[in-house]
Write a structure and sequence with these properties.
Blueprint lengths: L10 H8 L5 H17 L10 H17 L22 E4 L4 E4 L2 E2 L2 E2 L2 E6 L4 E8 L7 E4 L4 E5 L2 E4 L2 E4 L2 E6 L5 E5 L8 E5 L2 E5 L2 E4 L3 E4 L3 E5 L4 E4 L17
Antiparallel strand pairs: 1-2, 2-5, 3-4, 5-6, 7-8, 8-11, 9-10, 11-12, 13-14, 14-17, 15-16, 17-18
Pfam families: Kelch_KLHDC2_KLHL20_DRC7
Protein name: Galactose oxidase
Organism: Pseudidiomarina homiensis
Length: 245
């Protein structure tokens, strides 16, 4: 196709303007092209170029311009590898490290604790064990103790909701235990002041299986008791967070 090289005709500029105007520039362009055709014999598309073709050209340029914008490279994720693959575990951080408790894998329930050092990016299996459990919750008390509540356990060939609170000392690496009244799996716990609130979760009944619970209990550090509070409006497996503490 022959190109019309007459001065004063700028198709690119017209397409830019076209995106903000109506048919009026189209008629002006046709008149301009026809006048140059009569003078120079240039027959580019003065009579054949339609409104739809101009719209297609404009749309193509707009799309091409948007697609050509460079994207910022995605940041690289830091890699932390556990010694033991697992799911259903619980994890909590103190002011030095991240602790991973229990869980399960293809070989069954796990009863170890892994400590992740965020500085060296290494994980170490600690020389202490907890009761094998999954779907528990864990809370750091702000000092040197981590409390583990509820979850699933497996004993003598039977699954059960674990009725034991385990207390792990991050300094001595020892575990102590106390009774958990109203145990639940998939509960959520958070510390607020001198208490840990354990919220929701599921209980187990031999006839009906697992059932979500509206229970809210509070573990008091001073008397080491778990007291029942007002129930949630709705029973649920949930997540809870403390704000402002």
């Amino acid at each position: 196709m022959a190109k019309c090289k007459q001065p004063g005709i700028d198709l690119q500029l017209f397409v830019y303007n076209f995106s903000f105007t109506t048919e009026r520039p189209v008629r002006n362009l046709k008149q301009l092209m026809e006048s140059h055709t009569n003078q120079r014999g240039c027959t580019m598309f003065a009579a054949a170029l339609s409104f739809k073709r101009l719209f297609a050209v404009a749309l193509t340029l707009v799309v091409a311009g948007c697609a050509s914008a460079p994207e910022a490279p995605a940041p690289k994720a830091e890699s932390f590898t556990l010694k033991h693959a697992r799911f259903g575990h619980t994890a909590v951080a103190d002011d030095e490290a991240i602790y991973v408790f229990g869980g399960t894998n293809e070989r069954g329930f796990i009863g170890n604790i892994e400590r992740i050092d965020p500085v060296t990016k290494t994980s170490t299996v600690l020389p202490v064990r907890i009761m094998p459990r999954r779907y528990a919750s864990a809370v750091w008390d702000g000092g040197e103790l981590i409390y583990i509540f509820g979850g699933d356990g497996f004993q003598q060939g039977n699954y059960h909701v674990e009725p034991t609170i385990e207390i792990f000392n991050t300094r001595t690496r020892k575990v102590s235990r106390t009774k958990m009244h109203l145990p639940r799996r998939l509960n959520s716990a958070a510390r607020l002041g001198e208490q840990i609130y354990v919220v929701g979760g599921s209980t187990f009944d031999a006839d009906s299986g697992f059932r979500t619970s509206p229970l809210v209990t509070a573990y008091n550090f001073n008397n080491e008791q778990l007291n029942r509070l007002a129930d949630l409006p709705d029973a649920r497996d949930t997540q809870v967070f403390a704000v402002g503490e």
